[in-house]
Structures are given as C-alpha cells and as structure tokens.
Design brief:
Blueprint lengths: L1 H18 L7 E6 L4 H13 L6 E6 L11 E5 L1 H10 L5 E6 L1 H7 L8 E5 L4 H11 L5 E6 L7 H11 L2 E6 L6 H8 L4 E4 L12 H10 L4 E3 L2 H6 L3 E4 L2 H18 L12 E4 L1 H6 L7 H12 L6
Parallel strand pairs: 1-2, 1-3, 3-4, 4-5, 6-7, 6-8, 8-9, 9-10
Antiparallel strand pairs: 10-11
Helix pairs in contact: 2-10, 5-6, 5-12
Length: about 300
C-alpha cells in the first residue's frame, strides 16, 4: 500500500514537472504586434527556447489594456510596446527587446531599475568596426550621421573608433538639416559611412537619398539590418528575430535561476550580409558572407557586449 502511494506521488510529480506547474514555472507575458511578422518570428523562437515547462508564455497586443496584467516577467517587442508598457504603470519585471540603445536610454534617462532589462536590436559598435577592419582594411575613417535619438551614442562611438585605430567624423541631423550637405561635409576618400538606427536619420523618406548620396560619393555604407543591405548598403551585421527570441529565452531562464533579471545586453547571435552588386559597382572585392561571419565571431568571442 505504501509503495503504491509512493508510485502515485512520483507519477503526479512527473506530470507536474513536465507541464511546467511544479515549483512555479514563471509566467511570461509578451507584448507586441500580432500582425508584425518579425514579432511573430520572435515569439516562436522564444517559445521554442522555453519548451518543456520552463515557462508559461502568453501574448497580447500592445494596444490592449496592460495595467492589470499579471505574470512573473513581461517582455516587450519593439519601441512602441516598450513605450506602451511604461505608460501603463505596470510594474512587473520586464525585458525590452528589439529596441535601439538610444530609445532605451530615452525611456530610462537615469538608468534602468533592478526590475528592468533589455536585449538591444543594435550591434555593439566595436563589432561593427571589426567588420569594417575585416572586410575593408584600407578604410581609415568612419563617418556617421547622428540624430536626436542617437547623438547620445557619440562617446561610445568615439571610444570604439579610437580602439580600432580609425578616425571618426560625425554630423548631427535634425528636422532642418539638409542631408546632402551633411554628406558632403562628412564623406571623403578611404571613408565608410556607419549607419545607426535613428528615426530622423534613417526613415522611409531619407533612406533612398542617404544610400544614393553615399553611392555618388563612392562611399560604402555599413547598415544595421538585412533589409538595409538589400536596399543598397554594402554590408551589415545584424541579428534576426529568431536570434533575439532565442537569447531572450536564455535571459528568462537566467532570471529564473538567479532570482533577478540579467543586465541589458547586446545580441549574442548574429550574421553578416553583403551586397555583392554594390561591392562590384564600387570596385571592392569582399570575402564570402560565411567567412566574414566566422572570423567576426572568433574576434568577438572574448569581449561580447562591447
């Protein structure tokens, strides 16, 4: 009789553990846009990373009420969802994902509290400059256009350029600055234009003129997304929504084990895209994407996050 009870209890524990109910598997609420394919891809990767009862994951659109939504952790996808959660007053520990560093710093100008973390959409600046060194060793100058959101990145940009042995030139744009005039002042020989995510600098109205202006001055662009490279940038290092969903799952598991959120982080997983048509037009001979990715991962292995 006693053996039977032990077997029953053991069986119940096994069921509870496999369903994620034992020992309080964390409840995770994801806030994003159900019509956004990138958000859907992120969510699928997040759920894959938290299978086997590691967490109970639910999703809601960011335009629905959030102030009374419970859970152990809250994950926002994109800047709009992050802003919506801030406005709601919800105090659940949260990880903001697919958000630029500049946008995150605007949300938390005094720095995040202990119940706030982030997984940035930006790549570390040193990683981007390493790509420049690997692919274009003849380049000695980095030019960058900064806007109201990204101008706060200037100290990091300057530090990374110094460490990489590159000269840095910058221009700060606002709504009244003429883009072509700024490019004329910035771009010269042996220069590459490093594009950073900023809604004033790169948007649906400026992207074409930015790419064309750099092209006419024979200046390659390092972009920050696969779409940007496809549109006319020479190359870019970027992380997919699947990469970021996978890493966010790892952050949730780390928070569960440590009892607190990990520090805000840059993407750990990334790929490189090259627009070889642009390279040929500019007379540049670049290594294959796979080789650049392998070499950049090797060089980035010991200083992730810088």
């Amino acid at each position: 009789m006693r053996l039977s009870k032990v077997l029953v209890i053991t069986g119940l524990l096994a069921i509870l553990m496999s369903s994620g109910l034992a020992f309080g598997a964390p409840r995770v609420l994801v806030v994003g846009e159900s019509t956004n394919t990138h958000h859907v891809e992120f969510l699928e990767a997040l759920r894959d990373g938290l299978r086997g009862g590691a967490a109970d994951v639910a999703f809601t659109d960011y335009d629905l009420p959030l102030s009374d939504r419970g859970g152990d952790y809250l994950i926002t996808i994109g800047s709009a969802a992050a802003n919506r959660v801030m406005q709601s007053g919800n105090q659940v520990p949260r990880i903001h994902t697919l958000i630029p560093v500049a946008a995150f710093e605007l949300l938390y100008p005094d720095g995040p509290t202990s119940n706030v973390s982030a997984l940035f959409i930006d790549q570390p600046i040193t990683r981007q400059l390493r790509l420049v060194r690997l692919a274009l060793p003849h380049v000695d100058t980095i030019a960058s256009l900064l806007g109201p959101d990204s101008r706060g990145l200037l100290p990091d940009l300057s530090h990374a350029a110094d460490r990489s042995g590159l000269v840095l030139r910058t221009e700060v744009l606002d709504e009244t600055t003429a883009l072509d005039s700024a490019l004329e002042r910035l771009l010269g020989d042996r220069t590459i234009l490093l594009a950073l995510p900023d809604p004033v600098v790169v948007n649906s109205k400026t992207a074409r003129d930015l790419i064309l202006g750099a092209y006419l001055r024979h200046t390659p662009i390092v972009g920050y997304s696969k779409a940007f490279v496809k549109a006319g940038a020479l190359m870019g290092v970027h992380s997919s929504p699947t990469d970021l969903g996978r890493q966010t799952a790892e952050m949730i598991l780390a928070a569960r084990d440590m009892g607190h959120l990990p520090e805000p982080a840059y993407p750990a997983y990334f790929q490189i895209s090259v627009n070889f048509q642009v390279a040929r037009t500019l007379g540049l001979n670049l290594p294959p994407e796979a080789e650049l990715t392998r070499r950049l991962r090797q060089e980035s292995a010991h200083d992730f996050g810088n």
